[in-house]
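Q: I'm writing up a methods section and want to include an example of the input and output format. Could you take the sequence below and give the corresponding predicted structure tokens, formatted cleanly so I can copy it straight into the document?
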Amino acid sequence: MLKQADVKIFSYKAVTGFRDISEEAIESNWFGSQINENDSILYYAFVQVGNVDAFFTKVNAFNVKQETLSNIHVVVLNIEKHN
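A: Here is the clean output for your methods example:
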């Protein structure tokens, strides 16, 4: 998807996410613990403004076809300053 949206510069890193479910009802907790860990991959990219919408469109189309609850999440952060 990055290549299709003409994103030329990106990096990725394996990350572990944590979710505190200690305030959820015990009956809905399938995992038997209060803190859940999720292995994920975090991609970050420097994207030209004109390519952002194309990437969002591709990700949304991919997510619609997913048969699992695990979707790709996209966030845009503007860089105000850099050196």
